[in-house]
Amino acid sequence: MTTKFLLEESRMPRHWYNIVADLPVPPAPPLHPATKQPVAPADLEPLFTRSLIEQEMATEREIEIPEPIREVFRLWRPAPLIRARRLEQALQTPAKIFFKYEGVSPAGSHKPNSAVPQAWYNAQAGIRKLSTETGAGQWGSSLAFAGALFGLEVKVFQVRVSYDQKPYRRALMETYGATCIPSPSPETAAGRAALAERPDHPGSLGLAISEAVEVAATNDDTKYALGSVLNHVLLHQTIIGQEAMLQMEMADADPDVVIACTGGGSNFAGLAFPYVGQTLRGGRRRRIVAVEPAACPSLTRGKFAYDFGDTAHLTPLTKMHTLGSTFTPPGFHAGGLRYHGMAPLVSHLKELGLIEAQAHTQNDCFAAAVLFARCEGIVPAPEASHAIQGAVAEALRCKAEGKAETILFGLSGHGHFDMAAYTNYLGGKLVDASYDEAELAMALSGLPSIPA
């Protein structure tokens, strides 16, 4: 019985997949925050290099992965596909459960799949400094790693609650050579404003984005790098799903259900978009399930509307499922999922009925993560625990219905830097944080007014 399905390096995908080429209805364009008109490439040049802007606006189905990027990817790619046989036995389910494991990367998550290309394209353009934000630290550590490879200075604004919760993730960033600053910080106007209003502000990804964007926009030698949400980031992650398709063929299996966690959407898009694209081109229809935290439920509770990607309203307006750019989620441990909005392309697929969404509580997700760790040996990141909870729920449904379906989920990273969260869970101290309904209502009431 084969447990791990490993691709030869020679079979690593040579192109990223762009789902825009296959959409039956094009997504709404991003808008300039001042004019409310569609963003032009020149509008993005203060933040991004031309190559990344071209990818952001690309419509072709395949975009070639440059060989220097593939050379770095060979450090950990192709990533393994694993059959979770012991988890199946523990659940006594007739379902087959597979997971695509991205925790084998140097930074321990899927995030280097985009960090390496972004760093390389910036280095090729002569850029020497990058600013970015991070929640739990997976993106920050990944960009720090990529910056070290290509000689870039990296400044990371880490959401304050995660900065305090995850000191070893911060240490990893600094080991790679990056500077890590708790957000909100006194270094930027956005940070100072937030601290003046609330000195003990826990931070949010929206606010950390504001700080990182401000640094890039006000310094000619610095560009901005984002770890999720934008089209080019989701594009880079599709190497995950493309590899999974080849590996599922090796396993002589085909998923009935594809599941991944969602915060900004990069990990979900990476696994799911190639499968959705196959359906859009006339292939088999599968259930594609996005699993998000109940404490920050942008897909299940958010409004599909134009909104800012950051709290200080420095970014373009994008049409997405949003809880409101001023919404501050409670400080739960899946810091990478604490974002007020969902990627526009993921939101668009939800509106088209091509994907579905679920929200689960923190304790349920940690229970699933502990079960998984005791069966399969891998301690998952809190973010990835949401995908596991989704997969467990589907496997138990199969058990109840007597159906031997095939489930594929994305294990986006390991939890070796998140053991304080597990200590809290195992000690009965983990709280299912809930957001303030009044704050959510106020944030949604403040959405920008966009003429039809």
From TrEMBL:
Superkingdom of the source species: Bacteria
Cofactor entry: pyridoxal 5'-phosphate
UniProt keyword annotation of Iron-sulfur present: no
Main EC class the enzyme belongs to: lyase
GO MF terms held by the record: L-serine hydro-lyase (adding indole, L-tryptophan-forming) activity; pyridoxal phosphate binding; tryptophan synthase activity
Keyword set, alphabetical order: Amino-acid biosynthesis, Aromatic amino acid biosynthesis, Lyase, Pyridoxal phosphate, Tryptophan biosynthesis
One Pfam family linked to the record: PALP
InterPro entries per record: Trp_synth_b-like, Trp_synth_b_CS, Trp_synth_beta/beta-like, TrpB-like_PALP, TrpB-like_PALP_sf
Cellular component, GO annotation: cytoplasm
Domain Tryptophan synthase beta chain-like PALP: start-end pairs: 74-413
Modified residues (N6-(pyridoxal phosphate)lysine): K111
Catalysed reactions, as listed in the record: (1S,2R)-1-C-(indol-3-yl)glycerol 3-phosphate + L-serine = D-glyceraldehyde 3-phosphate + L-tryptophan + H2O
Keyword match Zinc: no
Pathway assignment: Amino-acid biosynthesis; L-tryptophan biosynthesis; L-tryptophan from chorismate: step 5/5
EC number(s) per entry: 4.2.1.20
NCBIfam families per UniProt: PRK12391.1 (NF009057), trpB_rel (TIGR01415)
Entry similarity comment: Belongs to the TrpB family.
Described function: The beta subunit is responsible for the synthesis of L-tryptophan from indole and L-serine.
HAMAP family (UniProt xref): Trp_synth_beta
Database matches in PANTHER family: TRYPTOPHAN SYNTHASE, TRYPTOPHAN SYNTHASE-RELATED
Quaternary structure annotation from Swiss-Prot or TrEMBL: Tetramer of two alpha and two beta chains.
Name this polypeptide is given: Tryptophan synthase beta chain
Originating organism: Rubrivivax gelatinosus (strain NBRC 100245 / IL144)
